[in-house]
Design goal:
Blueprint lengths: L14 H16 L25 E5 L5 E7 L3 E7 L1 H11 L11
């Protein structure tokens, strides 16, 4: 894993072009050290972008898992693939009373 990446960006970009740049930057970041923390609490010293009421789409996968897409107004659509076990834990969490917290995945 690399600890540094060299990036030079100049010019004018359309929204689509910026999305492509963001995706490429995210790919580079995913291979860098230190890795993104596994819990949000471990990263509280930096600003976290929060979006209220995001659009989302969920599809069941053939193996029993889920593919979840969440739309962020700044970074675009993000896809997450959950295993069948993760899907079951998510369903269990969603059936808990309000105020319940699930932090282990």
């Amino acid at each position: 894993m690399d600890e540094k990446a060299k990036v030079q960006i100049a010019g004018e970009f359309s929204a689509t072009e910026l999305e492509e740049i963001i995706i490429e930057l995210a790919k580079v970041r995913s291979g860098m050290a230190p890795a993104v923390p596994e819990t949000p609490e471990a990263d509280l010293d930096r600003e976290i972008l929060v979006q209220d009421d995001p659009l989302f789409t969920v599809r069941t996968l053939a193996g029993g898992g889920l593919r979840v897409w969440l739309r962020n107004e700044g970074t675009g659509w993000q896809a997450f693939q959950l295993s069948e076990d993760q899907r079951k834990r998510l369903a269990e969490f969603l059936n808990q009373p309000p105020g319940h917290t699930f932090t282990k995945h």
